[in-house]
Amino acid sequence: MRLGSGTFATCCVAIEVLGIAVFLRGFFPAPVRSSARAEHGAEPPAPEPSAGASSNWTTLPSPLFSKVVIVLIDALRDDFVFGSKGVKFMPYTTYLVEKGASHSFVAEAKPPTVTMPRIKALMTGSLPGFVDVVRNLNSPALLEDSVIRQAKTAGKRIIFYGDETWVKLFPKHFVEYDGTTSFFVSDYTEVDNNVTRHLDKVLKRGDWDMLILHYLGLDHIGHISGPNSPLIGHKLSEMDSVLMKIHTSLQSKERETPLPNLLVLCGDHGMSETGSHGASSMEEVNTPLILISSAFERKPGDIRHPKHVQQTDVAATLAIALGLRIPKDSVGSLLFPVVEGRPIREQLRFLHLNTVQLSKLLQENVPSYEKDPGFEQFKMSERLHGNWIRLYLEEKHSEVLFNLGSKVLRQYLAALKTLSLSLSTQVAQYDMYSMMVGTVVVLEVLTLLLLSVPQALHRKAELEVPLSSPGFSLLFYLVILVLSALHVIVCTSAESSCYFCGLSWLAAGGVMVLASALLCMVVSVLTNMLVGGNASRKNPVHPSSRWSELDLLILLGTAGHVLSLGASSFVEEEHQTWYFLVNTLCLALSQETYRNCFLGDDSEPPCGLRVEQGLDGATAAWQDGPACDALERDKGHRSPSASQVLRGHEKWMVLASPWLILACCRLLRSLNQTGVQWAHRPDLGHWLTSSDHKAELSVLAAISLLVVFVLVQRGCSSVSKAALALGLLGVYCYRAAIGSVRFPWRPDSKDISKGIIEARFVYVFVLGILFTGTKDLLKSQVIAADFQLKTVGLWEIHSGLVLLAALLFRPHNLPVLAFGLLIQTLMTKFIWKPLRHDAAEITVMHYWFGQAFFYFQGNSNNIATVDISAGFVGLDTYVEIPAVLLTAFGTYAGPVLWASHLVHFLSSETRSSSALSHACFCYALICSIPVSTYIVLVTSLRYHLFIWSVFSPKLLYEGMHLLITAAVCVFFTAMDQTRLTQS
Amino acid sequence: MKDTDIKRLLYTHLLCIFSIILSVFIPSLFLENFSILETHLTWLCICSGFVTAVNLVLYLAVKPNTSSKRSSLSHKVTRFLKCCVYFLMSCFSFHVIFVLYGAPLIELALETFLFAVILSTFTTVPCLCLLGPNLKAWLRVFSRNGVSSIWENSLQMTTISSFVGAWLGALPIPLDWERPWQVWPISCTLGATFGYVAGLVISPLWIYWNRKQLTYKNN
Question: Where do transmembrane segments lie in this chain (chain B) (predicted)?
């Protein structure tokens, strides 16, 4: 079967997406869970151990506190309370920490440090899987056991005010609630006043057992202006007064109730130096945890360095404090200071309950749990505990009992620590079988793509796909047989859960058929190549085809980038790699332009140096043919070109344009500092977004929009020109409406809206322009040979996407768009057209620039930098599908815009009819090389220290990028088809 | 004729390498606390001074190209001044390129500039010595098939290897090893130095190896 190389590449990428999906499902492990979910609360609590003598204490211990208030402040970093900021802005809290009856800790949050997984960790005590981040905004109800659920079943009345994520996580659990939304990050006063306004009433009433307050304001301030903004101080003072109000009210209430009350102040995650969160830096991970109650001992002295504990410990502690069963999936251990004041028998009872729960979880998740040191310690301390109980029940030698008791205590604490640790490490269990299946499919596709390079880049851009070669059938069935046998063996012997085994037979069989078909295709292509290679070696067609230095740079750059993905620092700082490569590309282009302009005419070198293979890297000749066969054709009109085309000022523009592009890249680079190591450096973006520089930001945004209009309008029809102008005006109005820029005639307007109308106004124009473009394309297909119309249609689609990007980009990122278009124009006019690069080179350059622009936008390989606000532009509430699509487009706007420019550029160039399919093939190949290599690297690095904080987010980004690539390839192929039908 | 030429080339190159080695050891006799990493800037100045001096001496002593027919004093002076201007210009343009590559614009400007100076020392100074302030000749040498003697051939190789060394030297900067030599611009200057030395070593050997195939117009 003959296929165009574009179609072939699109199919390959589609199969690759499937392989990556299977791989991802296997890579992100299911979290540690207790299997006893159905009979919820059926089994009785573990009785007190006793050696011989019968103990009468089999029920759950009674609660230690009557009322619990949890004040959760989003993004409260440890130094906001324990550091100098705390002393300055939170005097009451500092007083409580230093002199009051309280226990303070630093609770370490595990990455991903995003709100929803952290709430889960606090309330269930389990470690949420990484995939939870992706579902962060659309949190479904929590099914696992949690403190809230236990409290509800125990008949406690819970009241909640704050982030509505809680209401989604625990629907119908609260007797009263008021959810605030984290919808508008720019709002940081109203969102907290909506919580505080209920306080007076609720504190007076006292008909509740648990009150949870979740304040979002601090997090919003962090996102807007970072941890060093003056707003932080105000917010902390406000929080301090809230805490004082609650504490005094609780203290006054305490006289009426027999038991003391407990006040918990905690943060869900910290805040990095740029004000974002999601990764695993010290600032993001460390949160304060302060437990305040009159039951605790007042301890004098200054505690500047609180003990480090895990965030998951809160769930177990809260359960004990309220006299509840510890949540089943909790991996945390009780914070011992909380129960220190109780009689020793109770202390031991609490610790015993905790260890029993942890060891049960261990038994259910680890096959060889008996060898676990934690489990052994647990058995030993249980025995000691039994002995102690016997002694206790028989006689009451206080001295001996106390000594023995404290020994058992220590034993228990050690057991708790070990158990908790070994459970936390259990989370990283990979489903290797699914991962292998995914990897095999992806690698087979990559091999097929690589093997078909010579054929696909041939002038005809067609290749023979051996779907029914002679050896096919036998080999194919053999491989299927082997694979099914393997599948049965693996699935019957697997100990841990396996996603691929859980699939239905039909789906699994389909994947196996696909894998074996791919294998057969690879084999037959390989044989064809070997046979054909023998034939073609006899008559060497192109002896002079040598690599130009640009090709060499492209090849080395791609290889270097792929290899760099194995180092965590290079993944964190991937933007540096791309900036470096793009800069080098510009320098290479500049060298090429110089050579073309100054040495273009004397094609015969003055002196003959015969051997120069070694010097290839530096001084290859411009007139030499590029690597691929495809370029044979171009060579014809490549040689005489150059200096005839370049005359007068155009020549100087050609010489200067690489330097202009370099300067643009340097400016964009200082716009958004991204990555990890240098992320804290001051950048233009932060300067612009701070509230003092609103005027500058407005001017910059307006100029950028103007530049965008000037650059885009030249290719459009007059209707879409008008639509574009109105749309860009609408973008500015939208930004003014939500308060990020302002109009000169209304310098200090305070009314801030969601800008729904303005945004929808722009959407109408985006859709209009895209529709016009599609119409033109369809028309050009009907009226054949209307070449001009097709170019206009493609440019209109490009400009529609530009308009959408302008709407979704934050105002300080609009220069990225403007400079991007400027660079595209410069490259088109002065580099690609005069120098006559071939389609493959142009494609790779577009890809590189697209990647660089991905990072110029301020993205990084860290989930935290995804600008989620793009998903809410013009939407009243969270609607999943448009929000996801808009966020994806907003994030990948750089690569997508460069790809759409590539389509337009190649189809506007008439010189080669197969350019578009070559480009599609190259694009698919160059995108799938990194992702295929990366999954192999990640599989081999799966026990790396940074696997969760660095490599996993990058894996998600790569998966998403491949999906985008697939979409781009489909677009390419569609455009290519229209060409085929025309000709 | 040819073998003696290659021998002379080898000796001059060995002298250059020797001067770089000296620049590492001699200053520690006179200066306290001298080390390449800690007092990097001092070393940069000394090294570039040494290499420039050796290049000038070799140029005067060996005179590989006997082109200067008009040797009036004024001509020599203008030629020398022109060389100085070219050197400064190359320093500044390298500085600009480094900033375009992402070097900080304001802070560490001195460090960046000294890196530009040492890279110019490794590349521009030999060019100036060998070819003089003659842009046409430079363009000829650095285009394919443009060299006309083993001197120019080796010049091409050392220059390119210095550039490649500096380019490769930037690669370890993002790694989180926290080593003192990862600080800007130490790894790049060291890379450039190693590249230069490698070029100096490799080019005579390569020319010797390929001496049969090499044919130049002049000889």
Answer: 9-29, 41-62, 83-106, 112-133, 154-175, 181-209
Return the residue matching tokens 């750089």: A894
What pLDDT, in 10s, does the model give residues A143-187? 778 899 889 988 899 999 988 888 888 888 899 888 887 656 667
Please give the backbone phi and psi of residue A212, each rounded to the nearest 5 degrees, phi first. -120, 125
Whether the CB of A619 is below 8 Å from some CB of chain B: the reply is yes
pTM over 0.80: no
Cβ neighbours around B124 below 10 Å, total? 22
Phi-psi domain of A343 (left: phi exceeds 0; alpha: psi -120 through 50; beta: other): beta
Among A789, A791, A790, A797, which residue's Cα sits nearest to residue A773?
A797
Q: How far is Cα A804 from Cα A706, in angstroms, rounded to an integer?
A: 15
Look-up of token digits 């060291």: B190
Task: Provide the shortest C-alpha distance from residue B33 to chain A (in Å).
Answer: 30
CA-based nearest residue to A293, from A344, A242, A259, A343:
A259
Give the total residue count for chain A: 983
| Chain-chain contact of B101 with A580 (C-beta, under 8 angstroms) | yes
Looking at beta carbons, which residues of chain A come within 8 Å of B206?
614
Return the residue of B nearest to A666 by Cα: B100
Extract the tokens encoding A21.
Answer: 């999906």
Q: Say if CB A172 and CB A141 are below 8 A apart.
A: no
Q: Minimal CA–CA distance to A292: which of A330, A324, A248? A: A248
Whether chain B has a CB inside 8 Å of the CB on A612: the answer is yes
Closest chain B C-alpha to A569 CA, distance in angstroms? 5
Mutate to test the interface with A, among B176, B187, B219 (most CBs of A within 10 A): B176
CB contact under 8 A, A607 and B146: yes
Phi, psi of A878 (to 5 degrees): -75, 115
* Beta-sheet pairing, A102-108 with A286-292: antiparallel
Report residue B62's pLDDT band, with 50, 70 and 90 as the boundaries.
Answer: confident
Contact by Cβ (8 Å): B202, B161: yes
Assign 3-state DSSP to chain A and report helix, strand, coil percentages, each to 5. 60, 5, 30
Query: Does the predicted interface ipTM exceed a cut of 0.90?
Result: yes
